[in-house]
Write a structure and sequence with these properties.
It is a single chain. This protein has 13 helices and two strands, in the order H-H-H-H-H-H-H-H-H-H-E-E-H-H-H. The protein is globular, with a radius of gyration of 21 Å. It has a two-stranded antiparallel sheet. By secondary structure, the protein is an all-alpha fold. A hairpin with a 4-residue loop joins strand 1 and strand 2. Helix 7 packs antiparallel against helix 8. The structure holds acetyl coenzyme *A. The site of acetyl coenzyme *A has 25 residues, from helix 2, helix 6 and helix 9.
Length: 310
Amino acid sequence: DTTAHEAVFDAAVAADERIEPRDWMPDAYRATLVRQIAQHAHSEIIGMQPEANWITRAPSLRRKAILMAKVQDEAGHGLYLYSAAETLGTGRDELLDKLHSGRQKYSSIFNYPTLTWADVGAIGWLVDGAAITNQVPLCRCSYGPYARAMVRICKEESFHQRQGYELLLALSRGTEAQHAMAQDAVDRWWWPSLMMFGPPDAESAHSAQSMAWKIKRHSNDELRQRFVDICVPQAASLGLTLPDPDLRWNEERGHHDFGAIDWTEFQEVLRGNGPCNDQRIGQRRRAHEEGAWVREAAASYAAKHGKATA
Ligand code: ACO
């Protein structure tokens, strides 16, 4: 019965054990995991678009090879995550359908344009840096398949973050125009990167429950603060500034204070009114339609192969 099941589940969570696909779990726990994992998976595959924009224009063969590898990694991350969601009984078709019809979200950050080559560096340094800060604690998430997927994803994200940092460093130390391009990219990506961590704790609908279930290990504001503290010295080593006049070390708190985030902009992006929302979702739908023949051929092959070996 449910009460006995619930007691076993609660004890496992309390003991920091992993919940596995065949274990009993509350319906709301399952639903919240599907929501978060789906949103995460969608972010990985939509996140391929802004950077893919620069593959044909990468300034050297070396940079192009690195960027292609990185964009392919994002596709792989999407696959691990859709597979993790499948272990909860939700198929990839259903999740993609919800993405395409706007019933599930993807990260706000991917609705901003990549205007210059330096944006590839700023995405690696800031966006992937924010993603790692958020995702390292998810390696200890109470749901086993999600936690395990995160281990490999974080290793790859850490390579992505370093390539972005190295790219920006090269530009920052380059000509005056290259330095200015790097600074402009950081100026545009800084605030949207802080928004990636989600709404402030007081307005975060799911945080309290997700933390009680040990899906989330830290609150949105805690992780945002951690990220700011990591970035400040890195910006200094890059020879770049962060576009926040209120950013300063607070000795008493042992953290950096930072300026107010424009939450209206965040809400607008979530509502579909960011600079690239229509373009991103339009491109995703098109890619899905154009790939229909591959899915059909694979299904047909599997059916024939299944019969032949039966
Ligand atoms: N972009 C889009 N939607 C967001 C964002 C964001 N940056 N932050 C929060 N939201 C949404 C939430 O999904 C939720 O909407 P919903 O109820 O329709 O699902 C709503 O805003 C309220 O937010 P919270 O209650 O704080 O939601 P939650 O507890 O899920 O926390 C967070 C949000 C921190 C993003 C969490 O879901 C998470 O850690 N997800 C996994 C990481 C991830 O998705 N990363 C993707 C970007 S990184 C990358 O792919 C490179």
